[in-house]
Amino acid sequence: MPTELEELVGFIAHPNPQIRLVAIENLVPYSVSDPSIFKRENLTPVKHLKFLIRDHPKIAEHALTILINLTADASVVEFVASDEKFLGIALGLLVDPKEPNANLLAMLLANMTKWDGLKDIISRKQPAPESLHSDELVLNQLMDLFVKGADGSYNKHADYDYLAYALADLSKHEEIRRFFLSEQEYDSVLPLNKIKVFTEHKSDIRRKGVANIIKNVAFDVPSHPKFLDEDQINILPYLLLPIIGNEQYDEDEMLDMLPDLQLLPPDKQRDTDNNNIQTHIETLTLLTTTREGRDLMRNVKVYPVIRETHLRVEDDGVREACERLVNVIMADEAEQGAEKAIEEEDDDDNRIVEI
């Protein structure tokens, strides 16, 4: 016989909305403490939860919260993310400027992108709300939501911060890296240029996600000239500013630094998240794969910034990343030999969002 909890799970499909609300509200904690109750009968409760994201906003809120927690399980992630109809519904709700649960939908999408099959989103299209000023490509809509929706400026209920994690996971796929580096027809802008400004945003989630997007895209070595060109992406200031603090530099060092790094205010602070600092340094190391990248970093005095970061940040990961970068940019080219092949590492954006 089913347990009381299992019977309660059955009530989330009840035709009476008040009964559905009471049942699903009481079930939210069990999506973390006892997720197995939602996996009965070939995940039938999960099927019901997917349907409920279009229910009354409060019911939908609880359904999304439970789905976010359940998608910590890889089998549930695939079951949810591979449902084309559900994905279309979720993405349609996400871009609605009046959707009250948009942030939860962004969190669920961040978990769904753990499933590699979701890279097919690269070709997915849907009508764009007029207020978004985007095109039909879903990836462009997600980018525009992320940029225009910060701080509740597109939807008063949402800031879309968790799209940073979704986009970071997607950027691990080669075809989506190419998207970030390709000028879009509808606005003539490279997607990477839209998000690079968030490396110093107040949101920890945005900074972390964007740091990992930039690093993932930097694995495309042929694009490095575009990364470093001042008239194209010009990424160096956006990598260096988050890792520089209020330390003083010798005048001869300062004069050769990038203009953005000169005359910083005395209260300038480096990123408070050491993982972000490490990620930016690892991206700089990726950009030393070519001789041009190494020479540029020497010319604009990247070494003093890394030297001070190594001295001032008490974190083993940061210090090891600093040492690896210094070994490259301070080495004699004649001794350095062949250009390095740098392997991709797992980052914090791999984590599952849990409420």
UniProtKB/TrEMBL annotation:
The Protein HGH1 C-terminal domain, residue ranges: 283-336
Stored Gene3D superfamilies: Leucine-rich Repeat Variant
InterPro entries: ARM-like, ARM-type_fold, Hgh1, Protein_HGH1_C, Protein_HGH1_N
Span of domain Protein HGH1 N-terminal: 94-277
Coiled-coil ranges from the UniProt annotation: none
Location of the region described as Disordered in the Swiss-Prot/TrEMBL record: 336-355
Acidic residues: bias regions: 336-349
Family designation: Belongs to the HGH1 family.
Protein's name in the database: Protein HGH1 homolog
Organism annotation: Podospora bellae-mahoneyi
Originating gene: HGH1
